[in-house]
Write the structure tokens for this entry.
Amino acid sequence: MNKKTLLLFGFIILKFILQYSLISSDYDLQRDEYLHLDQAHHLAWGYLSVPPFTSWISYIIYLLGNSVFWIKFFPSLFGALTIVVVWKAIEELKGSLFALILGATCVFFSALLRLNTLYQPNSFDVLCWTTFYFILIKYINSKNSKWFFIGAIVFAFGFLNKYNIGFLIIGLIPAILLTEERKIFVQSKLYIAFVLGLLLIMPNLLWQYTNGFPVIHHLKELAETQLVNVDRLEFLKSQVLFFIGSFFVIVFGLLALLLYKPFQKYKLFFWSLVFTLAVFMYFKAKDYYAIGLYPIYISFGSVYLASQLKEGWKRYLQPVLILLPILLFIPMYKAFFPNKSPEYVVEHAKTYQKYGLLRWEDGKDHLLPQDFADMLGWKELAVKVDSVSATLPDLEHTLILCDNYGQAGAINYYSKNKKVIAHSFNADYVNWIRVDKKIKDVILVKEDDDDDKERKREILLFDTVYLAGKRINKFAREPEISIYVLRGAKVDVNKRIKDEMERKKNYDD
């Protein structure tokens, strides 16, 4: 095993070690992680929230025991593979050993450390973006049409993981048209590869069609409730912060694409970044949607900087350039990771506020960063629901109905009582509610600020209704959650559930 391979393995091992140490034991899993884990029990070619790839990984996690170790393993793996792809891209660009170390260090000490702590589609999304760009470099160098087909497969898996990869193509097409690489569009094998990619994603497209294209409703809802609060200047500021330690390498990479003669054939990458960022900003996308753009530009920047160092200065500048990403990332490490207790975050709020971390999707500042708050109170909620369930005599005919997918997923993950499964009319759970047995009693889990008048009317349709418990945590995204018991239904609960499921499926909110 040569020195380069040993170094690469060292980065991979260190990546896994660090990822497992970035989350304090004060925190549970994050809201979205519970939903993705529950998808393992409802395998399909599509979901209201995401395409199917995450459910496949969830099923593997389930087979492995569903432990937190494996839940965190896969995003860490995708992050490590992203480093590998950048390493291989630098080798393809004829980078030196120093360029390899610089590139791997820059990718390592970036926002990917944060992204890879969460079991969400984002880690694999970044890997697919980086791999697709790497494949494009391979094609430009070799002109071998086999890379069309490999690219089609990578794109298909990226699409089946997160539709966000569509922005890559939207930004890439005009970039290709502006350069000499436009002749790629007369290659017949490109269109055969396009058909291959289409066939691979077709099951998901058919699922979208048969379910009334819920992705369109999801995007519309996202735009109305979250993207409307996105500030374009804040979006640009976040792009710098995501790769603060390697921003100078990315900038030099972009300059090299314009001025460095050996990189002239890759000029389309410069325009691709410009067009893709423009599209993201036009649609007021969330800042982290664009993270997948940057790792490949670290490859260009690392190779260029390594080639420009004068012989006499190398021994002094090389250590400085490698230390710079690490030193500049230290402030990010102190604020961007849930490695401090909620009490510590509140006491040092100014540190988090200056980075905009306390600003949630509602556009307002809160006690904790939104992702941190979304990792609190879930296990406690499940314990309380279990204690309430233990008081009911007939769990076979009891329904746990939650306000949202976070509550339902957390209860299903942590609950010791597997006789009754938590459900919700929110997100994918609306398709998963089973009403094959007559429902007599309901455990209702709801936010205290819920002003759902129809829900309150439903409570009147039972013989006995009482507040059985509360989960209170001022740091959680849902500070107070009430647990009601509704016993002795006066109406056909099963029919009402079916009617509500149909209403939600038709997006009648």
Remarks:
- The mean pLDDT is 88.
- The longest strand covers residues 462-472.
- The chain is about 60% helix and 5% strand.
- Strands lie at 398-402, 422-424, 441-447, 462-472, 480-489.
